[in-house]
Amino acid sequence: MLIVMNVAHTKEQLSGVVRHIRKMGFKAHVLPGVSSTAVGITGNPRPLDPSLFEVLPGVKQAVTVSKPYKLAGRDFKRADTVIHLKQGGLAIGSDTLVIIAGPCAVESEEQTLRIARKVKKAGAHILRGGAFKPRTSPYAFQGLGLPALKILAAARKETGLPVITEALDLESLEAVYKYSDIIQIGARNMTNSSLLREAGRLDKPVLLKRGMAATIDEWLMSAEYILAEGNSQVMLCERGIRTFTDYTRNTLDLNAVPVVQKLSHLPVLVDPSHATGLRDKVAPLSRAAAAVRAHGLMIEVHDRPDEALCDGPQSLLPAQLKELIAQLRAMGKVLGYKL
Amino acid sequence: MLIVMNVAHTKEQLSGVVRHIRKMGFKAHVLPGVSSTAVGITGNPRPLDPSLFEVLPGVKQAVTVSKPYKLAGRDFKRADTVIHLKQGGLAIGSDTLVIIAGPCAVESEEQTLRIARKVKKAGAHILRGGAFKPRTSPYAFQGLGLPALKILAAARKETGLPVITEALDLESLEAVYKYSDIIQIGARNMTNSSLLREAGRLDKPVLLKRGMAATIDEWLMSAEYILAEGNSQVMLCERGIRTFTDYTRNTLDLNAVPVVQKLSHLPVLVDPSHATGLRDKVAPLSRAAAAVRAHGLMIEVHDRPDEALCDGPQSLLPAQLKELIAQLRAMGKVLGYKL
Amino acid sequence: MLIVMNVAHTKEQLSGVVRHIRKMGFKAHVLPGVSSTAVGITGNPRPLDPSLFEVLPGVKQAVTVSKPYKLAGRDFKRADTVIHLKQGGLAIGSDTLVIIAGPCAVESEEQTLRIARKVKKAGAHILRGGAFKPRTSPYAFQGLGLPALKILAAARKETGLPVITEALDLESLEAVYKYSDIIQIGARNMTNSSLLREAGRLDKPVLLKRGMAATIDEWLMSAEYILAEGNSQVMLCERGIRTFTDYTRNTLDLNAVPVVQKLSHLPVLVDPSHATGLRDKVAPLSRAAAAVRAHGLMIEVHDRPDEALCDGPQSLLPAQLKELIAQLRAMGKVLGYKL
Amino acid sequence: MLIVMNVAHTKEQLSGVVRHIRKMGFKAHVLPGVSSTAVGITGNPRPLDPSLFEVLPGVKQAVTVSKPYKLAGRDFKRADTVIHLKQGGLAIGSDTLVIIAGPCAVESEEQTLRIARKVKKAGAHILRGGAFKPRTSPYAFQGLGLPALKILAAARKETGLPVITEALDLESLEAVYKYSDIIQIGARNMTNSSLLREAGRLDKPVLLKRGMAATIDEWLMSAEYILAEGNSQVMLCERGIRTFTDYTRNTLDLNAVPVVQKLSHLPVLVDPSHATGLRDKVAPLSRAAAAVRAHGLMIEVHDRPDEALCDGPQSLLPAQLKELIAQLRAMGKVLGYKL
How far is CA B183 from the centre of its chain? Predict the structure, then answer.
């Protein structure tokens, strides 16, 4: 249920509506908009009767929301969410195509700084690098952990690039929150509700990857877990779904970008590196993601892919990233985005 | 097995190799290339020993081909296949992004001519229109049949556009062959081996759509059925695969375009209309298909979609097609294709 | 729309209803039942108003059918369809668990007769054997064709077992119709509407396999193509669907058996051999198919699997079939079927 | 790598092998068997040379393990793992078909005790009931939490049935460990490596459900996360995979049962309730799971399904459970299991 206030409502009327909702045992989310203010109700086990709210002073209309998600939907918030990063002054969800690039994993300070300088020079906006790696095998390299976070902080200091890295559990979330500009929640944790809720209580942007077999609705419901706790800085990232196909690791679902953009106001990025697992497919699918007007790209880059501790075969070389960014920039002039 | 001839081989040596292969009970396919000539062997139930051929005069090398398909693969033919249409002088598989557009079904002469003029004016190269419609339900509109072919011929005469339409079985194949510039074999018939073989005996280009659950290898094997009969004018068309996702009818698999282009020399087109089933998703995914460098697009267009006898909700309006083509043309300047 | 007649309706009233339907431009299917007679209407592009028919003399009720299929649905025909084979006196769709067994392909008269005797001795009811083989590769063994049909006829003559074999196109359909007791339409041809329609005009039972990516509704719609032409002797066969899983060729979908049995009156069989592609998985999944109360099983058997021209690795040995049938027979005493 | 000791090896030789492995920087897992003892090595980034170990005193053979999982595989441990529950004296993984039954969620003490008595009377061995519920929506009922665990403990005390309930995160894991006989890790957390590792450090049995899009190898790798920490009491539970199909919530993959049983020594159970989401499909698919020789079943039961706070439509009534168990028991006499 969404309670839309009159344009000329008073502060008292607004808090009266909130109090009324709470007395009924539900949660009230005040959603200030440019031209109108609304109050979202969550926690109601079944649809409510609009007339219960339309009699309250200052209320223009009570709208039943048809989708299982509420705060993530366009019904609740018409305008695109734009996430402003302090570090670097970047706006994600705007008309800028945001490029996140860097190695799969932070392997050493030397490796990370070296690659950070190269991706910056190539034109990337944000540095990625895994500190805590979710791996299928317990025997595979699991990341350097805390030392990797300090290396990322050093790379940020030197290059000025904001950084993003993944949190796997409550413990690593606390550490990632401390060091990183954006908190990544990976595909394997998209349904880890405890982690989502805890990320929702933080005041830093969260990038939520789509689970390998998640429908669009389920993905938005996972975003809703974060939003419902009060953190409105959520961006989504499509990274390939599991299908029957061979040749690529997963099937990058670019259909999802315009679909999500119609349903939700949250920014949508695309990770072609994990989706395909193949270096020579990253550039064409990055261009395709720009062509469907994704808000950003997340690309793995390594200057010595043969030595990489993980995912070397899918990493672009810095020179390839530079060339790709030049191409994406030229496409932007036609398609109406900046880079 | 692929027999590569010496650059300086004689005609006699070449026909000697062919005779040798036939004597062994196999089929020989002479494959003349720009710089070298090769002979492909098919019909061998299991791998052959290269030394059986390397002793023959004029033979440089005998190469075992690792893929289940042969004639469809880059091992057999390095250079891209370019299909030249007589009508319109179009080259499919070249650096031109070919636009096929028109109604889902031919409904009447008036409707088809009207739309044909509009798609031509919008910049399309080829007119599509279903005469024989494969439908899930036996009670749904199955197409006008033969009269529709005559209407398409009339539209070609008036607009100069070559036409493409689907054949469903041997009977309709004969009729389509007579009237159409390109024979379409649809997703539902991708594994109809009799139809594929018969199309392989014709001397007109064939567009082979990918089956809804076909792997890349299976799709190329279906192309191989056509090629093995002697028709080398085969183009492929990705049209969405079946996955678990909601919101779009199928999942357009753009990963498939660069994957196929690496494995095969055949042109690859994309049909975003059937893949998504939604008008507002056609333009973004068309741009994405161009961005992965598909060789062409197949787009449904109707000027009165609410009256369309089939697939109205996914048809672009002529004005939308025009706008899309303008955008694709501008992208082509950046990406290196013509339109 | 289904017109249910009064119990005490006259012959004139029934033909009046049929005439009325035809005058409206639709097709009428008289469906005589044990206790009541109904008339199904097909060919109507959109739902009809029941009152148009309820005023006719002798009509009890006009029922709108909610599913896209009509003749295949329980709305049209409540009672299970039982298909009686002349050869062998077998009833498919009854409380007998029907066992179809035999080699993947007819390879020679000697091989087929030898295996036919063994599967009969093991307790099978029907002999299977491919004459026309649909293959992914044009270079794979495509079956012996017409001579194989004659071999099957000889095996029937000797053993008394009815036979089933697959038709691939209109040409082979005619031949199969002549020689075989049941006509098989394979997964690759489930959406070949011409073949379905032609099979619908014949007076022999048809076994329709589920396409690899067919939903239940699509499968029943394919059955509807056959039924709509007048052939009511259709049985269905689940043979594994395409999913992301590894280790087995396809995923046998046993959920489909009770689902289809609720929606449709047609018999449902299961083919565990093609679903798994693995000999040691055939027995457990056969038992599982019996446990969900499939009406029959289709099992590949070969006495010399290492020499088999196709699908040797999934074929049971005759001794394994015998042991499996013994086990299935014992289960039948608990589960209420005969064997 | 698996080091197989001589039958007549000494204790000193065994600890010498362990020391040697640790000196190389790897982890040693002593695996005592009935007739022979082996030592598994994990933590090695790449395959090791067998000769490094075969020279050590007491070593019979060093075997390279080909699968990505080690401790979960039959290479490491030939004999079936049997998990003995103290409460109730039950052996999971033996020739008993174990029945776990109970409500989706613990709703109140009254409701849980009432249903616990009924499932016991119907013949179930273990009581299930959710205390912490993983839900797609943050607004759906999330379970009673800690009070629910105390209710389960009370139900165990009264009925004598051991209990199983799900842990969602480290916090609930600690509580579940304290109160429950078996710790369940759900499909949504199958790739939550922190939770898996922590469960691996506990000394209670863990039931690990298969993720909705997990391949068999990935599922066994998740089990490996638990095993690698030292907890060898792991049982697996198939609960339906995500496919394109309609009508059932997921596709129960019974193929997986014999596949896993060949690859791994761990017990495999089946949950037909979540797989299908439909009450009338639970009994046939339970019989099918018994027919492929799953080691147990996990079935939702509610005596007032219309009032259930979650998953009422898929819950069996107690009388239906009783009837099903009677049928499964009779099948066991044929198939060789006890119940």
Answer: 9
